[in-house]
Amino acid sequence: MKSITIQFHATVEELIEFVNLTATKIGLSVTLITRKPFSLKNMQREIILNDLIPKLDRFNVQIALTIGEANLTASSASKFLDLNPGCVEIEVGFLSDLGLYESGFLFTSDDIDKIVIANKITAQLKNATKAGVIAVNPASGATAKMRSFRYTKGAKALFDQGVKILPIAGNSILQLPD
């Protein structure tokens, strides 16, 4: 079983561009998943910012990339994953008044064709990001290096402007090195 998990920060615009380019280049179907209220939307065209903005909330929007058309008969996000095994999941982080929230790349499968596709997407994501951040506990000041955590140029630009870079869980603030 192959499993890939990549934590990263990107602007929503960068994430949309990445998904659109990747789906077009590799020939994948794109499904927009909203958790509350639950909905699935097969994107017949490229994702645009207006597809996401009204739905963005912490952990509410996910994008699935599939080989061929996705099965959209699911009644929940978890059932969608059951019906579409081996899809690449992208959790959409976003910019709020609190800071830039983390995005995530998730994949699990033992299907060799899907593993090949996931590896291609992983390589493209790694080419579009840099690795290595420092987590800082705001209460104690303690720090920890997170070597595999990734970020884009847009996330770095926001950090340089004073925007907080927020992990998916916990109260640490992430620092992006020069």
Strand content: 25-35%
In the CATH hierarchy, the architecture of the largest domain is 2-Layer Sandwich
Q: Which structural class best describes the helix and strand composition?
A: alpha+beta
Largest sheet: 9 strands, mixed
> Oligomeric status of the shown chains?
single chain
**CATH topology (level 3) name of the largest domain:** TATA-Binding Protein
Q: What is the share of helical residues?
A: 25-40%
Order of helices and strands: EHEEHEHEEEHEEHEE
Please indicate the count of domains.
2
Uncertain runs with pLDDT below 50, 5 residues or more? none
State the shape.
Answer: globular
Report the mean per-residue pLDDT as an integer. 91
How many H/I helices? 5
Give the C-alpha Rg.
16 Å
Give the CATH level 1 class of the largest domain: Alpha Beta
Span from first to last CA? 36 Å
Molecular structure report:
The chain has 178 residues and is α+β, with helices and mostly antiparallel strands. It folds into 2 domains: 2-130, TATA-Binding Protein (2-Layer Sandwich); 131-152 and 163-175, no CATH class. Helix content is 28%, strand content 33%. It has 5 helices and 11 strands, in the order βαββαβαβββαββαββ. The protein has helices at residues 12-26, 49-52, 77-83, 112-127, 153-160; strands spanning 2-9, 29-34, 39-42, 61-66, 88-91, 100-101, 103-109, 130-136, 143-151, 165-166, 173-175. The strands form 2 sheets. Strands 3-2-4-5-7-1-9-8-11 form a 9-stranded mixed β-sheet. The chain has a two-stranded parallel sheet with strand order 6-10. β2 (29-34) and β3 form a beta hairpin. The relative contact order is 0.21. The model has no long low-confidence stretch (mean pLDDT 91).
